[in-house]
Design goal:
Elements (H helix, E strand, L loop, with lengths): L3 E6 L3 H16 L3 E2 L8 E6 L4 H20 L4 E6 H6 L2 H5 L5 E3 L4 H8 L7 E3 L18 E5 L1 E2 L10 H5 L3 E2 L2 H13 L4 E5 L17 H9 L6 E5 L8 H9 L6 E3 L7 H6 L6 H14 L4 E8 L6 H14 L3 E6 L18 H23 L6 E9 L7 E4 L5 E5 L7 E9 L3 E6 L1 H6 L1
Parallel strand pairs: 1-2, 1-3, 3-4, 4-5, 5-6, 7-10, 10-11, 12-13, 13-14, 17-19
Antiparallel strand pairs: 8-9, 15-16, 15-18, 16-17, 18-19
Helix pairs in contact: 1-5, 8-9, 12-13
Bound molecules: 5'-deoxyadenosine and iron/sulfur cluster.
Length: 441
């Protein structure tokens, strides 16, 4: 019987994409995926280190793997991704039952390791170029990620990513376009361009520098592509050229993830975000002018060292002013090796962080709920993803705004339909498949 692997993925979309590549690569080596960790010959973890909570969750899983290995000594345990990179060789000291550890840029090294004779503890932590040639096993056949760059050249003082994913390197323009064309040829209708800071794309390319707007336009114009998304941009670099592409191409989705992080200019400065509150609000206004119906999502951190009640109030004010359609909210967590981890003054007590978080979430949810009402009564195009998670007799899909829609109707995953929206909560739209669409079937 083929050897079996099990993989658990933590963290961001970049990690999910890396896991798809690990799966594709393992299957090409003759491994088969199993849904049960206990049955696996190879137990893999693709880890995240963005916040302490991510570390803690992962360690519990790692202990579970250790117990499995105790019962089946031949089991190979592999740990990849950002946590592994941030720990490097300490992984083997602290967790001697781990056989292989590798950073986010070293997915191909996993294959090398598995195909050598001596499977003894080894670590791979040097970036060696893009693993673009790896086969990928896509979670959904009609949706694909396209990694446009690795690493990050920013120096946000709270963030561990520049140290785990290294310096910013763009993938060649023509190579990306060719890959996007190939994906569309395979039946992909939605592509998400992935990078730690997508608008920094192309500046480092030689001899001919490129830019993100060009890439977005060319990918959005590929015949047969229906939707293009991207994540994440940096507000500093979100310029009119990108918004023009949004406005001109129907394929470029009307959703922008614009990470605010904080609403106080003082805190933004301490975070080294390179924009202040006014600049952020100006960007939002510029984007809304070009793409009036755009949906904004964001990331916000509460309790950054030195954040006073007044600073926090300013975060709430910016949220009220922008009215985000959704937001990911985080409690500040000191990460090893980051600048903010060394700040000793003005640390915000945990209870205060928790209390601010609750207040922030209330504002976010109220705004998201209000914003979502603009969709009620509209007929919207929805890309069907499959059955609804809460009620399998209904379908679930997504609008261009990245809003989840639950509706009664028919249709295969990966196809489009039109849905009349009848109600909306902060998270989900509810609707009915439109009669015109039904008649066409
Ligand atoms: N503490 C809390 N949140 C963080 N993020 C990144 N680093 C930290 C940290 N040290 C958040 C940011 C980022 C998102 C992916 O995670 O909001 O945009
Ligand atoms: Fe993704 Fe950042 Fe987590 Fe790495 S640390 S997996 S880049 S969220």
């Amino acid at each position: 019987m083929a050897k079996q692997f099990h993989i658990t993925t933590f963290g961001c979309q970049m990690n999910e994409h890396d896991s798809e590549r690990m799966k594709g690569m393992l299957e090409s080596l003759g491994y088969a995926e199993t849904g049960e960790r206990g049955d696996a010959d190879l137990i893999l973890f693709n880890t995240c280190s963005i916040r302490e909570k991510a570390d803690e969750r992962f360690i519990a899983h790692l202990h579970d793997a250790k117990i499995i290995k105790r019962g089946r000594p031949g089991t190979v345990i592999g740990v990849g991704g950002c946590w592994a990179q941030s720990m490097k060789d300490l992984v083997f000291e602290q967790f001697p039952f781990v056989d292989v550890a590798f950073g986010p840029g070293q997915v191909p090294k996993l294959a090398e390791f598995l195909t050598t004779d001596s499977i003894s503890a080894q670590g791979f932590f040097e970036f060696e170029g893009f693993p673009a040639h790896l086969p990928t096993k896509r979670e959904r056949p009609h949706q694909a990620w396209l990694q446009i760059s690795v690493g990050c050249h920013m120096k946000c003082s709270y963030c561990i990513v520049p140290s785990t994913r290294g310096r910013h390197v763009s993938r060649p323009f023509d190579e990306l376009v060719a890959e996007a064309e190939r994906l569309v040829g395979e039946g992909v209708v939605e592509i998400t361009l992935l990078g730690q800071n997508v608008n920094a794309y192309g500046r480092d390319l030689r001899p001919e520098p490129r830019n993100f707007a060009e890439l977005l336009r060319v990918v959005g114009e590929i015949p047969g592509i229906k939707r293009v998304r991207y994540t994440s941009p940096h507000p500093q670099d979100m310029k009119r050229d990108v918004i023009d592409v949004h406005a001109e191409l129907d394929t470029v989705c009307q959703h922008i993830h614009l990470p605010l992080q904080a609403g106080s200019s003082r805190i933004l400065k301490a975070m080294r975000r390179t924009y202040d509150r006014e600049r952020f609000l100006d960007r939002v206004a510029m984007i809304r002018e070009g793409v009036p119906d755009v949906a904004f999502s964001t990331d916000i951190i509460v309790g950054f060292p030195g954040e006073t009640e007044e600073d926090f109030q300013q975060t709430l004010e910016v949220c009220e002013a922008v009215q985000f359609d959704s937001a990911f909210t985080f409690i500040f967590s000191a990460r090893r090796g980051t600048e903010a981890a060394d700040i000793t003054e003005g640390l915000v007590p945990h209870e205060v962080k928790v209390e601010r978080m609750q207040r922030l979430v209330e504002v976010i949810q109220r705004n998201a709920h209000e914003r979502a009402q603009r969709f009620v009564g509209r007929t919207m195009e929805v890309l069907i993803e499959g059955p609804s998670r809460t009620d399998p007799s209904r379908l679930r899909g997504r609008t261009t705004h990245n809003k989840a829609v639950n509706f009664e109707g028919f249709g295969e995953p990966g196809t489009f339909t039109t849905v009349e929206i009848v109600s909306a909560t902060s998270q989900t739209l509810m609707g009915e498949q439109s009669l015109v669409d039904l008649a066409l079937r």
